[in-house]
Amino acid sequence: MVKTLLIAPYQGLAETVxxxxxxEDFQLDVTVANLEEGVKAAKSAEKQGYELIISRGGTAxxxxxxxxxxxxxxxxxxxxxxxxxxxLRGIKNGVALVGYANISRGxxxxxxxxxxxxxxxxxxxxxxVRGHLINLKEQGYSVVIGDVITVQVAEQVGLRGxxxxxxxxxxxxxxxxxxxxxxxxxxxNNQLYYYQETFNSIPVPVILxxxxxxxxxxxxxxxxxxxxxHIIDSPYIPRLVRKVLQNQTNQWEEIEDENYFYEILGFPxxxxxxxxxxxxxxxxxxxxxxxxxxxxxxxxIIGESDQAGNIRENIGRYAQSSAPLCIVGETGTGKYTIxxxxxxxxxxxxxxxxxxxxxxxxxxxxxxxxxxxxxMSIKEGTVIxxxxxxxxxxxxxxxxVVINAFPESIKVIVLARPEAERIENDFYKKISADSLHLIxxxxxxxxxxxxxxxxxxxxxxxxxNETIGMKTEAMEYLKDYDWPGNITELKKIxxxxxxxxxxxxxxxxxxxxxxxxxxxxxxxxPGNALSLEGTLxxxxxxxxxxxxxxxxxxxxxxxxxxxxxxxxxxxKLKE
Length: 575
Known about the structure:
- The chain is about 45% helix and about 20% strand.
- The protein is of the alpha/beta class.
- It folds into five domains: about 1-75 and about 170-185, Rossmann fold; about 80-165, Rossmann fold (3-Layer(aba) Sandwich); about 205-285, 2-Layer Sandwich (Beta-Lactamase), CATH 3.30.450.20; about 305-440, Rossmann fold; about 445-575, Helicase, Ruva Protein, domain 3 (Orthogonal Bundle).
- Strands 14-16-17-18-15-19 form a six-stranded mixed beta sheet, with helices on both faces.
- The longest helix is centred in the last third of the chain and has 16 residues, at about 450-465.
- The radius of gyration is 25 Å and the shape is globular.
- It starts with a strand and ends with a helix.
- It is found in: Cytoplasm.
- This is PrpR N-terminal domain-containing protein.
- Keywords: Activator, ATP-binding, Cytoplasm, DNA-binding, Nucleotide-binding, Phosphoprotein, Repressor, Transcription, Transcription regulation, Two-component regulatory system.
- InterPro entries: AAA_lid_NorR, Homeodomain-like_sf, HTH_Fis, P-loop_NTPase, Sig_transdc_resp-reg_PrpR_N, Sigma_54_int.
- It comes from Virgibacillus kekensis.
């Protein structure tokens, strides 16, 4: 029995592994980790007595340099290439593939045979990726195919990245290869723990980490508050460390454990070390109106409609304007997506987004004062105000004073429903210096096909689903519906279709069955109360689904609202 750990650089690969039959002579465990996180997982696995590591791409290469047990690479097969090209068949031009020679050679052959117009860029090192992607963007390319690194860098430079996923065929080949090489390697222990530099004089909890996210030292305040120890084990910490070292700037992040939410600040200490300061801590049961989003990524503006084109063309103007921006649209029209894109165009990933939720804002909690202090320490970034129609006039006045005190490097964006503009108060009049009105999906149905293709590609990478397309007649059926819940509702329907359809293509019958049984109109109509029929578990499932819809299916934010962690949410969704 070979005790094996498969380290998947992306979630979809882990889901694919769960669906295949594991050979009886393998004890196979699966974890999701990329690059440095993967190395950390591999080191831990070696200490726990694992005898074989299986991974993919740059993660596998890095692991091989850091452990003494055998490491098997999951190759990218021709089947994998065909899948990703099929997912992108609706894009006529502006597509490039960036990868090592073993990927680009095979991809070039397939493209020649199928007459796909895809530009091939061969790299010899991951350090070359950023330069190539910047050149491709300047040449007018909008979509880049590649491995996890290519997709991550594409997001950073403002391109849409599409991941080449590995299918079950590639995983089974890797298991066969693992069986062959297993007996040629020996296990050794390689410990990398360093303890130096103390911070006991600092009156707030602080820890010092190395470039791998490993603890070097913790100060006395951190040690005295035993609850802080959970921060060290958070999966967000390695990502924060990488961001700080890459940009050599302060980075904010919100993390959580079973009992608390933590607001932390990462700051560079040297080229290989990062300090983490706990700036705030609150119980999970305590609602909070101000959230820091420390790593806002690039989000594409999807669609072929005039509005989608106009937004893509003018997004830079909204980003460069120092005036507050009010984005107006019905629920589910993509207001937050546009706000995050404006932020990315102005600041990139180096600066945080601070979200203020009006329906949770309370005067007596002093949260506006905390917001003012936070923005002074952040120095530059975006404040997004959501649900401001829920607060009273007294809070409006105080919030306006706080906003007026922001430095010019802070971009203010308000997300408002159409009825909010009709509120008679000075706040919305002042905040609407620049306005952007989003039309509902029922008035831009030509964008439905683009959204469906984008969502299917996203779910394929996330969940490892085999569904890669929708038949034309099924797509036309979706266009006959008025979509009162707009893009959010469409995404929910496409997600369920991709999860429940075992075929490669969604048929008209699949769409009809779901739309007829789901009772979409009643369940998504604004103001419609949740049904209390059924068992407690039935009611709980309806509440979870409603919160997920409200949070645009962002599981981290949904878990926070529900007062549970992501693993608990995932378990309940599977029940």
